[in-house]
Write a structure and sequence with these properties.
The complex is a heterodimer of chains A (288) and B (324). Chain A is 75% helix and 0% strand. Chain A has 14 helices and no strands. In chain A, helix 5 packs parallel to helix 8 (151-175), helix 8 (151-175) runs antiparallel to helix 11 and helix 8 (151-175) runs parallel beside helix 14 (253-287). Chain A starts with a helix and ends with a helix. In chain A, 51% of the residues are buried. Chain B is an all-alpha fold and 324 residues long. Chain B has a single domain (86-323), classed as MetI-like (MetI-like fold, Orthogonal Bundle). In chain B, helix 3 (39-65) packs across helix 16 and helix 15 runs antiparallel to helix 16 (294-323). In chain B, 42% of the residues are buried. The chains are: A mainly alpha (288), B mainly alpha (324). Chains A and B meet through helix 2, helix 5, helix 6, helix 7 and helix 8 of A and helix 1, helix 3, helix 6, helix 7 and helix 8 of B.
């Protein structure tokens, strides 16, 4: 038994598990620390040496952040309101991205478009543009149109951030569907829109989910546009909420981490369930 | 079958030549059933127009005002004047610009070096399954889509002078005599934001490198093993050479994504203390939205743009070579 255990391969595996565990623990630590801080008691937070596993977990921090009754001082901001704003911005961004990306990617995959390689190169460059470079000109463009202190301006800007990658990924998805299938459906009398909607889109469901979630999370975490466009606090999304929380409540670490955990949650959940779609889309986009 | 196609192609108002849908004769139309159809431009138009307005216009506008005297006053009065290269002269003479450029170079180079090296080690480690490998790799990617504002806040807490866990752990092992003000003192702040950024970039590097490594042909390794090549020989003479284009793609994209990092720096240090973590994007942002000097800010933006374009050119050339 021991001889079997200590053969070459097991030793290699043991080494790999050990190294993997060390790297994983190091990597995951910040997220672990965020969550455990959020449920620690104030004494545990300040304790020396640091408390690795909270023994007196509390949820007051979450209650405080969500504006529920606690024995603590109420915050001047309400996470529920901020989450609502982010939901609105992210949902619209997702729909707008899909609405524009699907026909665009379909055209780039299926039609002979003059200057197609130019368009594709343009998309590659567009997805590299830093939002810091776009924010001032967009402000100048949006202000006379009354779009700055509104969800709309942020939604349009966030869509622009997500769109180039979305088109690149979706085009790769469309290219994997055989043209013959589409031709057959068209010959059977379907209109192009019908065929696209009823036959092709269900086949590229994975790609659609990936870019939908990608667009949603892009808008969910976006910081620069929201910071620069939205002056009214009632319109602020979660990213600005967390940023202002740091400035206003520097010592309430448990609530700060509770808020951060809430904001990180959609990304973690999405990743947990959609990991393979993400990775497939991501590699298709970056490598091709 | 031809009947159906012909029927479909003849629509009211079709003159047989210029109609977007059924412009070609039946035979030709069959041939170019899907590809030679002008309706494609109609599908493509919305996304192109949108991107031209919301991305193309801002970039052009930014380049134009980099040659203009464009401040809050002129923005309001609308009397902007072209001043040639004055903004560029001004930023190139400002020590702050060179400091930001230097920090950007250090930030980008160090971040990429460690992101890539760690990403490569992790990818190589997990590419062949062993017990728990899938779970571990899943965990290693979990931070990938987390909003940067969250990452910044969490590391702000970790690096905190008085209560941060990093100081506590280092002191527990007597590695430092007293707490280090990672983010509040000039000589460590850049290091702290770089560490944060390395953490941020690991999932991306792992995802792309793993995809590249899994795509390598198995039989080469089998042959090498039979010939008695060690793991590190296989790595140096097979894996890395075969992976060249993937590595180039990761490095180029990493360069582009790192050079433009703004959020975590603005959240953790706002470019400070003093200018210890000022990089080109924070410098540009400060010039415009703090000092309202839009012209000079645009000049810095154009410098960033030129650097990005050079990188994008090499990346695109690399990608284009791959696809041929």
């Amino acid at each position: 038994m021991t001889a079997l255990f200590w053969n070459r391969r097991s030793r290699a595996n043991l080494f790999k598990i050990g190294l993997g565990a060390v790297l994983t623990v190091l990597y995951i630590f910040p997220l672990y620390w965020m969550f455990t801080t959020s449920i620690k008691s104030p004494e545990e937070i300040l304790h020396v040496p640091p408390v690795m596993i909270p023994e007196h977990p509390q949820l007051e921090s979450y209650r405080q952040v969500l504006g529920l009754a606690t024995d603590r001082q109420p915050l001047t901001m309400n996470a529920l309101n901020l989450i609502m704003n982010s939901m609105i911005i992210s949902t619209y961004t997702t729909f707008l991205t899909l609405l524009l990306a699907v026909p665009g990617a379909y055209a780039l995959a299926r039609f002979r478009i003059r200057g197609r390689s130019l368009v594709l190169a343009g998309l590659l460059i567009a997805q590299m543009l830093p939002s810091v470079l776009l924010v001032i000109p967009l402000f100048v463009l949006f202000r006379p149109l009354g779009l700055t202190n509104q969800y709309a301006g942020v939604i349009l800007a966030d869509t622009a951030l997500a769109l180039p990658m979305a088109v690149i990924i979706l085009r790769a998805s469309f290219l994997q569907i055989p043209v013959d299938l589409e031709e057959a459906a068209l010959i059977d009398g379907g209109s192009r829109i019908q065929v696209l909607w009823h036959i092709i889109l269900p086949l590229i469901r994975a790609g659609l989910i990936a870019i939908g979630v990608f667009a949603f999370l892009t808008a969910w975490g976006e910081f620069v546009f929201a910071l620069s466009f939205l002056q009214t606090p009632e319109l602020h999304p979660v990213s600005i909420g967390v940023y202002q929380f740091i400035g206003m409540y520097t010592t309430q670490w448990d609530s700060m981490m509770a808020f951060s955990s809430l904001v990180a949650l959609p990304a973690l959940v999405a990743f947990l369930f959609l990991q393979k779609y993400f990775i497939r889309g991501m590699t298709a986009g970056a490598v091709n | 079958m031809l009947e159906i196609i012909r029927r479909k192609s003849v629509r009211p108002g079709s003159n047989g030549f210029s109609d977007s849908g059924g412009g070609l004769s039946a035979g030709k139309r069959r041939k170019h059933f899907l590809i030679g159809n002008r309706i494609g431009y109609v599908y493509l138009a919305p996304v192109l127009i949108f991107l031209l307005v919301v991305m193309g216009f801002p970039i052009l506008f930014s380049i134009v005002i980099s040659f203009q005297d464009y401040t809050l006053e002129t923005l309001i009065s609308g009397k902007t004047a072209f001043v040639g290269l004055k903004n560029y002269e001004a930023i190139f003479q400002a020590p702050a610009f060179w400091t930001a450029l230097k920090h950007s170079a250090v930030f980008t180079a160090v971040s990429i070096f460690f992101q890539f090296t760690l990403g490569m080690i992790i990818s190589l480690l997990f590419v062949r399954a062993f017990p728990l490998s899938q779970t571990m790799r899943g965990l290693m990617l979990s931070g990938w889509q987390i909003p940067s504002v969250v990452t910044g806040t969490v590391f702000l807490w970790i690096f905190n002078l008085d209560y941060g866990v990093l100081n506590r752990i280092l002191m527990f092992f007597s590695l430092i005599p007293e707490p280090v003000g990672w983010l509040v003192q000039g000589d460590t702040a850049l290091l702290a934001v770089i560490l944060t950024n390395i953490w941020l970039g690991i999932p991306f590097n792992v995802i792309i490198l793993t995809a590249g490594i899994s795509g390598l042909p198995e039989d080469v390794y089998e042959a090498a093993t039979v010939d008695g090549a060690s793991y590190f020989q296989q790595l140096a003479y097979i894996t890395l050479p075969l992976l060249k284009s993937t590595i180039l793609a990761v490095l180029m994209l990493g360069f582009i994504y790192t050079l433009r990092v703004f959020d975590i720096i603005w959240i953790m240090t706002r470019g400070g203390p003093a200018d210890a973590t000022e990089v080109l994007p924070t410098f540009a942002y400060r010039l415009s939205l703090v000092h309202f000097d839009f012209g000079r800010s645009a000049a810095v933006a154009t410098v960033i743009l030129v650097i990005l374009f050079v990188a994008a050119f090499f990346y695109a050339r690399n990608a284009a070579l791959e696809n041929m």
